[in-house]
Amino acid sequence: MKNHAAFITVETLVNAPIDEVWAYWTDPEHIKQWNSPSVDWHTPYAENDVRTGGKFLFVMKTKDGGSGFDFKGTYDEVSFHEKISYTTTDGRKATNLFIATPAGIRITETFEPNQDDPAELQRDFVAGVLMTFKTYVESKV
Questions:
Q1: Closest CA to 83 of 59, 103, 46, 108
Q2: Which one of 22, 105, 110, 112 is most buried, by most CB atoms within 10 A?
Q3: Is residue 2 part of a domain?
Q4: Helix axis angle, 18-26 relative to 119-140, nearest 10°?
Q5: How far is CA 78 from each of CA 58, 72, 74, 85, 105, rounded to the nearest angstrom?
Q6: Pairing of strands 104-111, 8-14
Q7: Could you give the count of Cα atoms lying within 13 Å of 48 in the half-sphere of its Cβ?
Q8: Letter string b/e over residues 91-102, b meaning 16 or more CB atoms within 10 A of that residue's CB
Q9: Sequential DSSP letters for 96-140
């Protein structure tokens, strides 16, 4: 049995209605526009079947072609406008919560880090993706 590190939680607040937040979070055409932690990265390809038992594949690469990876897995639970939980192909678990607040939608992502990269690097990567998502959505609404 592999030794799992503690889960990591990051969050952002998106000033947009839940309909827009959910659509931009789940639609592959939108995912390709925002799924990157910084301007050095991009997602040239995305598949997303957002339902319990559905699968996802996001191909993430650095724009200079130096590195990249396929982020893929299966959805364990999808509650429309509220929650998305999944398991990656390497067995790690994650949950995204979408919570309405007076200031907008708070997205909280809790994920199990991989054992190969420093936890801080993984936290910063996911926080960067959430910030890119926030910027993208708020520029559209």
A1: 108
A2: 105
A3: no
A4: 120
A5: 18, 16, 11, 6, 17
A6: antiparallel
A7: 22
A8: ebebbbbbeeee
A9: EEEEEETTEEEEEEEEPPPSSS-HHHHHHHHHHHHHHHHHHHHHH
The residue with tokens 């995912």 is 31
In-domain check, residue 1: no
- The amino acid at residue 1 is M
pLDDT of residue 40: 95
Q: For residue 51, what pLDDT is reported?
A: 98
Please report the pLDDT score of residue 141 as a whole number.
86
- Rounded (5°) CA angle 21-29-40: 90
CB 141 within 8 A of CB 17: yes
CB 134 within 8 A of CB 13: yes
CATH of the domain at 89: 3.30.530.20
* Structural domains of the chain, count: 1
Domain that holds residue 124: 8-140
Beta bridge partners of 20: none
> Mean pLDDT, consecutive 10-residue segments, the chain of 141 residues?
72 98 98 96 97 98 94 98 98 98 97 95 97 97 86
- 3 falls within a domain: no
In the chain, the amino acid numbered 64 is: D
